[in-house]
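Revision sheet: structure tokens.
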Amino acid sequence: MTEADLNKDNNSDEGAVPDFMSGMVDDLEYIPRNERLGRAGRSKRRQNKKWALAVALGAIVLVVVLAMAFDRENPPRGAVADLDVSFTRIEGRLKALEEKIAHLEERMGSEILEKKTALSGSRKQYHTVVSGDSLSAIATKYGLTVDILCKLNRISVDQPIKPNQVLLVSPN
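Predicted:
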């Protein structure tokens, strides 16, 4: 064989190799290195996998929490017992307060009724000042403050009161 024949054979082989490789790529679905996804594509795939994993784990946790929350046959043992104890304690305190109120009403019942009757009367009530009376003594006698007594009579705290002066002591 001559050198020209060898070159001729080499040239024909050069065309056969690319054809052979392209056929092989098609058969194996091989992606040549220059056509592969770069780093950005790989990181995007990783992010997608992480996201899918996070969603799946979140869904599992949600299902477990909901199953525990709506398990009516087996409520948490401690919670029911704690609520029962709390309600019992509150009931006891409420009964004690009711007893104290009843006791106070018995002790002060007549005084309270007299004051309520005096204050709820629809007619106006007056007080005639006698020697030695003061605004604070009169206000205390009728269950008022000095300011209210002064407002009812349109006088000031500094203004002196005189014997036989008539003061309004009920707002009605």
